[in-house]
Amino acid sequence: MAAGQSSRMRGIKQLLPWKGTFLLQHIVNVVKNIQPQKIKMVLGANIEKIKSRLEINEGMVDIIENPTWQNGLGNSIAVGVASILKSNPLPKGILICLADQPLVTEEYLMDLLDNFKTNKVDVVASNYGKRIGVPAVFGPSIYKELLGLNSDYGAKEILRKKSTAMLSLDAYGLLADIDTPSAYEKIYNENHNS
Fold this sequence. Notes:
Elements: E1 17-18, E2 21-22, H1 23-32, E3 39-43, H2 47-53, E4 61-65, H3 73-84, E5 94-96, H4 106-118, E6 123-127, E7 132-138, H5 143-147, H6 156-161, E8 166-170, H7 181-191
Parallel strand pairs: 3-4, 6-8
Antiparallel strand pairs: 1-2, 5-7, 6-7
Organism: Maribacter litopenaei
Protein name: Nucleotidyltransferase family protein
Domain MobA-like NTP transferase: 1-162
């Protein structure tokens, strides 16, 4: 998910520098390393500027334009899931990641997927201590609810309702809430050598 405008940032958040590349390219590279069947990237605001910077394998990554990205993260999730569900066969699970979580590792994503495959739950989500969120893997029983999202709250409400059919993994050290220039500067400085 990388469709938002990032109005509180001084520039395009998805293109902020990170580890020799930029935030969105970094998370795409991390996801590629877990060898998914397909990556669907939902873009909206600043789509042409972002696309011009991306280095992706066209066969592996599909870019989906969300013309209604202003409706928020939930709407972008619904647009992405709708695109995924056009594929045949129906996927056994959908992993949702955000462009502004650069501390998420491929090991952590593999842990989410492995737990999803071995436990009989509808969702395997990330536990940040005070909240449950993404990255998360959603099973087929949740697809219809994901398609119905249309707000800025993402999958929060779904995760809250599914707490009894969900497994959550400790993700305390992986949360990087990059919503302001000062938050980005802080996390950048903590993760880059001077």
